[in-house]
User: Which sequence fits this backbone?
C-alpha cells in the first residue's frame, strides 16, 4: 500500500465522523445545516468522482510520470524535506490558478460547477466533487513535472492540499483572526461559495489565501451580507449524472445555435454566463434571483429514510469497489462502475419525488439481485460465502416491498 492509499484509508472514516459531529453541534446550537436529499446528492457525486478517479489515474498520473521522466529540467530527490515543502507550496500556487480558471473559463467551469451546486454549505459539500475535472485539470500541474518533482511527491502533496480543504466547508466555525489573513478558512471559503454580488468569483486559495491577496481576488466575509449558496443557474436536480453534464449540455446547445463560427468557439472559452448576442436574443434565460426558493421537492418521511438507507448500502459498495480496483479484472471493474453509476442516478431521481424514480429504483433492485445471482455473491468476491447471494436477493426483495408500501401510502406526482 502506497503513502497516498494510507492517507485516504485514515481520512475516509474521519470525514464521516466529522460530518456526524457537525450534525450534533448544529442540533445543539438549534441550527439546520443539512437537508437529507442535498447531502445524499453531494455524497453521491463524491462517490462518482472517486469511481472516475480509478480509471483517470492512468491518464493524469501517467502523463505526469512521463513528463517528469522525459522532459524534466532537474531531478529532485524524494528523500529531502525541502522537496516536499516546496512541492506543497508550488502545488497550492498552481491550484490557485486552476481554481481561478475554473471560474473564468466556461469549459473549466463545466467541470468545477459540480462543487458549487449545493444550496447548503456543510462538510458533505466538501465531498461534492466533479467527475470530469480530470479531462483538463492535469495541464495546470505540468510545471511540477517539468521542474522534476517526483510522482510520489506530486501525488501526496495533491492529496494533502485536497484534504485540507475539507474542514473549511462549514458554517459552524466563525472568524479566526490572523488565521483568516493567511490561510483558506471557513470564513474565507464561505465567501467563495456564495452567489452574492460582492463575493462572486473570489477567494480561490486551497491552503493559503495569500494568493488571493497577492493577485487581487480576495474578499472578506461580511456579516451584513450573509452568503447565499449555490450557483446563479441553479441545478434543481438530485441526478448526479445531470449534475456533471448540465453546463456541458447548455454550452453545446449555445454553440449549436450560434450563427457565427467564432461564437461557437467562444462559448467554451469565455467566462461562465457569456452567450452570443443572437443566441441570448432567440433563447433568453431567466435573470438570476437571489430570493429564489431553494430546490427541495417534498418527500414523505418514509421515502427520505429509504433513500438514506439505500445510499448507505451503495456507499459501502463504493468503498468495496475502491478496495478491489487493483485486484479486479478490467471487465468486472467496468461492470461494477456502471452498476454504481446507474444505482446512484436511480436513487437521485427517486429523491426528486418523481414517479420515474420509483421505476428506476425498481429496476436497480432487480439488477442488484441479478448481479448477485450471476456472480454467485458480488463483483470481485471470488470466494464469497454461499449465503451472500441469497442474502442480497432477500435484501432487494425487502427493499422493493418497503418502496411499494411507501408509494402506496403516499402517492407522488409524475
Assistant:
Amino acid at each position: 500500500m502506497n503513502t497516498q492509499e494510507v492517507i485516504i484509508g485514515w481520512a475516509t472514516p474521519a470525514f464521516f465522523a466529522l460530518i456526524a459531529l457537525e450534525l450534533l453541534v448544529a442540533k445543539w446550537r438549534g441550527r439546520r445545516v443539512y437537508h437529507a436529499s442535498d447531502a445524499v446528492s453531494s455524497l453521491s457525486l463524491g462517490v462518482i468522482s472517486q469511481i472516475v478517479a480509478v480509471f483517470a489515474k492512468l491518464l493524469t498520473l501517467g502523463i505526469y510520470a512521463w513528463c517528469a521522466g522525459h522532459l524534466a529540467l532537474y531531478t529532485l530527490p524524494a528523500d529531502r524535506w525541502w522537496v516536499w515543502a516546496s512541492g506543497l507550496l508550488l502545488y497550492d500556487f498552481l491550484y490557485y490558478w486552476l481554481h481561478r480558471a475554473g471560474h473564468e473559463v466556461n469549459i473549466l467551469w463545466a467541470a468545477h460547477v459540480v462543487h458549487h451546486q449545493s444550496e447548503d454549505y456543510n462538510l458533505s459539500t466538501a465531498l461534492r466533487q466533479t467527475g470530469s475535472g480530470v479531462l483538463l485539470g492535469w495541464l495546470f500541474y505540468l510545471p511540477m513535472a517539468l521542474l522534476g518533482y517526483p510522482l510520489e511527491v506530486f501525488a501526496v502533496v495533491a492529496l494533502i492540499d485536497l484534504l485540507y480543504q475539507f474542514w473549511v466547508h462549514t458554517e459552524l466555525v466563525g472568524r479566526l483572526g490572523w488565521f483568516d489573513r493567511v490561510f483558506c478558512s471557513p470564513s474565507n471559503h464561505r465567501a467563495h461559495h456564495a452567489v452574492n454580488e460582492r463575493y462572486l468569483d473570489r477567494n480561490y486559495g486551497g491552503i493559503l489565501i495569500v494568493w488571493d491577496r497577492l493577485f487581487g481576488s480576495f474578499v472578506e466575509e461580511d456579516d451584513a451580507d450573509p452568503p447565499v449558496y449555490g450557483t446563479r443557474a441553479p441545478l434543481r436536480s438530485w441526478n448526479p449524472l445531470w449534475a456533471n453534464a448540465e453546463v456541458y449540455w447548455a454550452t453545446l446547445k449555445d454553440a449549436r445555435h450560434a450563427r457565427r463560427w467564432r461564437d461557437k468557439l467562444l462559448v467554451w472559452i469565455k467566462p461562465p454566463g457569456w452567450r452570443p448576442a443572437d443566441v441570448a436574443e432567440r433563447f433568453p434565460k431567466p435573470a438570476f434571483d437571489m430570493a429564489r426558493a431553494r430546490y427541495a421537492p417534498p418527500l414523505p418521511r418514509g421515502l427520505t429514510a429509504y433513500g438514506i438507507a439505500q445510499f448507505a448500502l451503495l456507499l459501502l459498495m463504493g468503498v468495496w469497489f475502491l478496495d478491489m480496483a487493483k485486484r479486479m479484472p478490467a471487465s468486472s471493474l467496468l461492470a461494477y462502475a456502471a452498476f454504481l453509476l446507474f444505482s446512484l442516478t436511480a436513487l437521485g431521481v427517486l429523491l426528486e419525488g418523481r414517479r420515474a424514480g420509483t421505476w428506476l429504483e425498481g429496476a436497480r433492485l432487480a439488477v442488484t439481485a441479478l448481479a448477485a445471482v450471476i456472480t454467485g455473491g458480488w463483483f470481485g468476491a471470488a470466494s464469497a460465502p454461499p449465503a451472500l447471494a441469497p442474502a442480497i436477493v432477500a435484501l432487494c426483495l425487502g427493499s422493493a416491498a418497503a418502496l411499494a408500501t411507501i408509494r402506496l401510502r403516499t402517492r407522488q406526482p409524475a
